[in-house]
Amino acid sequence: MPFHSILGNIYDAAHGMYQGVKVQLLGNIGLFLVVEFILCWFFRLSSWKKAVAIGCSFSIAIEGVQGILGMMLGVFYRSVDVDDIILNTIGCIMGYGLYSMITKNKKQSLEN
Length: 112
Prior knowledge:
This protein is mainly alpha-helical. The protein has helices at about 5-15, 20-45, 50-75, 80-110.
């Protein structure tokens, strides 16, 4: 169910329990912020739609592999969660934004 674990973590944080927020929210967003920035930097992605689509596809692939491995091994050590895809995509958007700001500032400093 979309947003179920996200809202649960926000509720927990509002009541002083921050572990889920650190792991779930900041971990997924932070990881994919870095992944997206690196993808944009190395592949010179100039379209935010393309960059986010690639990052989101990568996130879906990771979730798919987790699900397939879990079924093949019969051990569900990792769950497949649509909230992970949502948070990873938010991280992708933020990573592309960071990349855009840095490259824009770099171009402006080279022009001056």
